[in-house]
Design a protein that fits this description.
Structural class: mainly alpha
Order of helices and strands: HHH
Radius of gyration: 15 Å
Oligomer: single chain
Helix content: 40-55%
Number of helices: 3
């Protein structure tokens, strides 16, 4: 039996101001995001996949995610 291996993803670091990091930490409390890095990667993927016009889509997705976490969806 062969074990399917996932692709290895390389990571890098970026620097953001500590005050922004703390704001993001507070913003993601209770959202299910595992880390600030995970949240930032999610936001960047959404922005880049939509050509920079995803604010409304992102907000709708966040509402759906939160409603699902609360058991409404």
């Amino acid at each position: 039996m062969k074990v399917k291996r996932s692709k290895k993803i390389d990571f890098t670091s970026i620097s953001i101001p500590s005050t922004l990091f703390k704001k993001v930490e507070k913003h993601i409390e209770g959202t299910g995001f595992p880390s600030v890095s995970g949240y930032v990667a999610f936001v960047l993927r959404n922005i880049l996949s939509e050509g920079g016009n995803s604010k409304a889509d992102y907000e709708a997705e966040m509402v759906k995610k939160r409603l699902k976490e609360l058991g409404y969806l």
